[in-house]
Amino acid sequence: MKSITLELTNVYAKGDFTATVYLGSEQNPVNLIIDTGSSTLVVEPNNYQPVQDKKLVATPIVQEVNYGLGGWAGALVHSQLCFTSSEAKASKTKTNNHSSLGNQKTSKALVCNTSIAVVEAEPTKTFGDADGILGLAYHHLNKSFDLTEFYNKKQISPALSLPWPFSIGDKTSATQSADKKTSSKQSLTDNSTQFESLKAFKAFLWQQPEHDIRPLFTQIADQHLVDNRFSFYAKRSSVHVAIENISAVSPTAKQIEELVADPLNQGRLILGGSEAQTEFYNGAFKTIKVFHDVYYNVKLHSVQVGNNTPILAEPLAPKDEKSYFTNAIIDAGASLTILPQGLFQQVTEQLNEMNPKFAKLLAPFAEIKQQYLGVDANQLELTQWPDLTFRFIGENDKSSELEALVCPPSHYWQINTPENDKACFKLLSQLPNWPNQSIIGLPLITNYYTVFDRSVNGTGVIRFAKQS
Questions:
Q1: In the chain, N or C: fewer CB atoms in 10 Å?
Q2: 3-state DSSP helix/strand/coil percent for the chain, to nearest 5?
Q3: How many CB atoms lie within 10 A of CB 294?
Q4: 201: enclosing H helix or E strand
Q5: Does the N-terminal peptide bond of residue 340 adopt cis geometry, omega within 30 degrees of 0?
Q6: Which percentage of the chain shows pLDDT scores above 70?
Q7: Closest Cα to residue 112, out of 202, 211, 30, 214?
């Protein structure tokens, strides 16, 4: 079975990796964040112009997603999507002690009748400088709502979500401003179509009939364009800045080009990827079980700091089991690894006990905003920092058979970010309103070539092999 190889960069999304895909009849290029922690294909109507898309079919469906940090609401449409697949190998030429990636040839793959959410309300800049998100999780996270009955009751014509018939906060509809004709089709003065906030709009949506949508990867796997698995290969969880006087937070257009060209800021997403891509790894795979097909739900047993006694990871709180299922997820769309408050505190306490100097370096990173500032990298001596070993329940679902995955200090600390000679600590404590569930993100994932194999036992497994 053939695979589709997409080139990745972490520059546009400030650490998360994006791939370029092409939407609609005009094949508009959009940079989408690769996210195994969500399921929706969502895009802002900037580079993608819905009003120019001759393949677009509007629907009465609306979607709303909250990611914990950021969220949006928008109209669901159907159109076509085109992948440009790079048939690439990892070059044997070394750059900064890492393999660079070289192109050999390219091909195209077209997916018709794809479900695309077009953003109409976004209180925060959820996507950074990317255009949206390509969710690679299962259909449970791709919640949507059919508003046909509501449109008919309120005599909204056309009874569709595009043109957008709602006003949320003080945000102006992007597609309405792009298409002046919509203003004559309906009025937004009716209170029933005006909402003070995205939170209020979400409460309204959850009273409407639900609608089931197949996520993009499920669609292409069902059509046998690729096997029902994909693999991920990247080197870092933060943008690498090798040149002075460049900030990864706010680079100029020319500086973006320089950052994108850095091999350490590149990666690969291989749809249909598997153990066959031997150029990306060495040695045997370690396999952990996916317990539920909501997120890529796994069970974290413990975290070990250096040679200390492993710290047991608490099970998920009973009140959250129905919605979140397990105490950890594997999320390639998270540039941080986020631990429950108690586990995070024990890990950092053990680090501080190993060396009193560590506490001063770690303290600023209690706030996520420090990721945009960093600390002086000259203060770090990475050789003094220990490995962090994460142990998960393996493929056979036995607590006696654990798989150990190592996050070295060069991964949970990222050097030369957000500027040259700065550094960032890549572990964070529990998010507000999030359960005691670990989000295992890029700091660990980027130490491995990772295969998300959804074809095994219904819910799948995730395989990890050391990168070549």
A1: N
A2: 20, 40, 40
A3: 19
A4: helix 198-205
A5: no
A6: 90
A7: 214
